[in-house]
Amino acid sequence: EEGWRLHKDGSQFWANVVITALRDNDGSLLGFSKVTRNLTEKKLADDRLKQAYADLEHRVQVRTKELSLAKQTAEAAVRARDEFFSVASHELRTPLAALRLQAQIRLRSLDKGRLTDFSPDKLSALFLDDERQVRRLTVLVENMMDVAKLTSGNLQLDPENFDLAELVRDTVKRLEGLLEQSGNRVNLALQASVVGHWDRHRLEQVLSNLLSNAGKYAPGSLVDVTLSASGEQAVLEVRDFGRGIAPANQERIFVPFERIKDANTTSGLGLGLYITKQIVETHGGSISVHSELGQGSRFTIRLPIAPVFTAGEKK
Ligand code: ADP
Q: Is the CB of 240 under 6 A from ligand 1?
């Protein structure tokens, strides 16, 4: 038998006890002998070994779980990449095909001497359409380049002091034509001047993404753009009254390549809001969405007026 026993002084030791019956030549029982050996050292060594095995087992389990998660993440990344290439090539091909077709039609008209096809009004409509397709291509290519920069941690900001209210007014003006085409009217409620230290080009990109999304996902809707500053931060909001976003999708839309698949899916790579979020966060700010299906969406951006750039500032 083995077990803990007590020394005379009260301290414990691990005992191995052997009790043997002692018999004479006839086999009659004479009594018993009892040998108790102190195996404390061995017992402690055995226990340490068992514990080490258990720790090892636990570490193997944890590592296996980590590896399996890493495998799932890698597989998801490969799937996202494949899907991205297929969506990207479709998205790039559509405006290219439209431009090519238009060029062929115009050449044919010229060949046949049909100059009436090129009245000033028609020409202006044709050029507007070309411009729209080229802009679509430019945005796609720029978004792809931004994502490459973001994944390699190379998004660099070029901050300067400027008035955000002025930038909002200019950006809305620049996108007026586009928003008119989708039947959106923009209502501005801007604090007179909100001066801060930010990357002008990147913040223009942020607002432009939100406004073009309003055009795509809330056509015909009024779009409220508000800007205010309270204390140390500026708050910019873009609100539409379009289809809205279900609660289950509200986090997903900020993930690269994620788009909500529904009946009215318009073109896009699912990169705009991801890039927007990264730009805002690189400025030390935050973006959130408040939305109800069928009611519209409100995107709120909070920016520190004087950001402390931890990384990503151009030298
Ligand atoms: P893209 O427009 O290329 O799909 P974004 O990252 O800009 O990429 O948007 C991700 C998704 O979020 C969109 O596919 C759309 O489903 C949803 N979304 C974005 N803005 C709005 C909006 N204002 N109203 C409803 N849905 C929106």
A: yes
pLDDT at position 308 is 78
Instruction: Provide φ and ψ at 52, rounded to 5°.
Output: -65, -40
d(C-alpha 175, C-alpha 169), whole Å: 10
pLDDT at 312: 59
- Could you give the count of Cα atoms lying within 13 Å of 314 in the half-sphere of its Cβ? 9
Give the distance (Å) from ligand 1 centre to CA of residue 272.
8
Residue 25 falls in which region: left (phi positive, over 0), alpha (psi -120 to 50) or beta: alpha
DSSP code of residue 93? H
φ/ψ of residue 260, rounded to 5: -85, 125
Structure tokens at 62: 């944890």
Identify the H or E element spanning 17.
strand 12-23
In this predicted model, what pLDDT tens digit does every residue of 219-264 receive, in sequence order?
A: 999 999 999 998 899 999 999 999 999 999 999 899 887 778 764 5
Rounded distance between C-alpha atoms, residue 154 and residue 234, angstroms: 25
Q: Residue 260 C-alpha to ligand 1 middle, in angstroms?
A: 7
Q: Is 213 in the pocket of ligand 1 (CB under 6 A)?
A: yes
Q: How far is the CA of 257 from the centre of ligand 1 (A)?
A: 10
pLDDT for residue 150: 85
* Residue 217 confidence (pLDDT): 94
Can you list the pairs that 82-91 forms with residues at least 24 positions away whose Cβ atoms lie under 8 Å? 83/257, 84/257, 84/269, 87/257, 87/269, 87/270, 88/140, 88/144, 88/269, 91/140, 91/267, 91/268, 91/269
Q: In terms of DSSP H, where are the helices of the chain? A: 40-111, 120-151, 164-174, 176-181, 200-217, 272-282
* The model scores a pTM over 0.70: yes
Confidence (pLDDT) at 155: 84
CA distances to 143, 252, 274 from 256, in Å = 11, 9, 5
